[in-house]
Amino acid sequence: MSERDPDEFSARKWPDWSFWGTGQGDRSRVAVVAVLGLAALFLIPRGAEIVDGRYDAPRAVAALGFLVCYGFGCLLVPWYGPTAPRRRRIAVVAVMVVLGAAPALLLGEPGYLTDLTYATAIALMLLPLRYSLPLGFATAVGQIAWMWLGQGRVNWGEVVTLVGVTAALGTVFALTFTIGHLRVAREQVRRLAVSQERERVARDLHDILGHSLSTMTVKLGLARRILESSGDTDPALAEIRELETLARQALSDVRATVSDYRTVSLATEIAGARVALRAAGVRAELPTAADDVRPELRGVFGYVVREAVTNVLRHSDAERCSVRLGRDWVEITDDGTVPAGTIAGHGLTGLAERLAAVSGTLDHGAAPGGGFRVLARGPEPHVPSTGAGPT
């Protein structure tokens, strides 16, 4: 038997009013107390009926005292009760039932049990339904039985008032409860959206600046070596011009990333990888075109090529780097040394997240013949691919 979803409704579940600790929750708390307070104003005619002289003074005073305490409880309990521990909630409901039933028991008036509507509504608010519903049912049945046995007839108006007002107050509490949780959920969604946007910008900036700065560093080193070894300015100036172009492109990419307008082209990334690897003196084995790759995967595969080549430039002593493409996969391998205990950094972690967003997977680690290997796969296509995938 599967476990119950924690968010699924259950009659055994205790109402969670923890959202009342927030600013929006305080408004809900005031609204609930105001509704129950207005409803409890109907206790005033009951008090006037008790003191009209039909009952002896001691019983009337005691009943009136219980009624006054009951009225104050109708204001205080909805304010403090929902945030109380479970045992205290049970005790509070029990006290409210005693206070509400005491005038009827003292004066022998079954009709006064109608006032228990407020205690029953509070029970619906504080207790699981498996406790509060039987309490309300028992109250109605008890009033009917008392009237029938004690008076020989049932005042159905009193019974209908008991059930109807209890149902109305319970509905108000349920709506308040639902609206409060929806507000909390909406706030959580807003926070998650902000967090995801920050992660997106951070991931894109890492991918953009990491590759661009690595390539620029290699080209700066090449220009410096040319000037130190031969003093020939023409090749050095060519590298510096390319550096200027890379810097402008990186700045444009950063601006586009922040504005969420940037798109990545697999063909462009392969061309950029060719330039960066050549500048670093790494022999590149790259595909001449990316037309065979499924269109929906070209963007994310562009990120894979960019990050993998950046890692070759940063962390590897490789002399050769190979990029292979299939319809729904891309593989980047090099012959560099893989340090023991190498773990995935932010770049590879970001790639895994990008691929997961398109139902793809990322594998990386030591290649079978030595070096490092990064393999990205897209989801299984609906039409079987005719090309063989990497082994």
TrEMBL record:
Domain named Signal transduction histidine kinase subgroup 3 dimerisation and phosphoacceptor: residues: 197-265
Top-level taxonomic group: Bacteria
Keywords for the protein's UniProt record, in alphabetical order: Kinase, Membrane, Transferase, Transmembrane, Transmembrane helix, Two-component regulatory system
Listed InterPro entries: HATPase_C_sf, Sensor_HK_TwoCompSys, Sig_transdc_His_kin_sub3_dim/P
Residue stretches spanning the membrane: 30-48, 60-78, 90-108, 129-149, 161-182
GO molecular function per UniProt: kinase activity
Family annotation (Gene3D superfamilies): 1.20.5.1930, Histidine kinase-like ATPase, C-terminal domain
PANTHER family hit by this protein: NITRATE/NITRITE SENSOR PROTEIN NARX-RELATED, SENSOR HISTIDINE KINASE DESK
Stated name of the protein: Sensor histidine kinase
Organism: Amycolatopsis samaneae
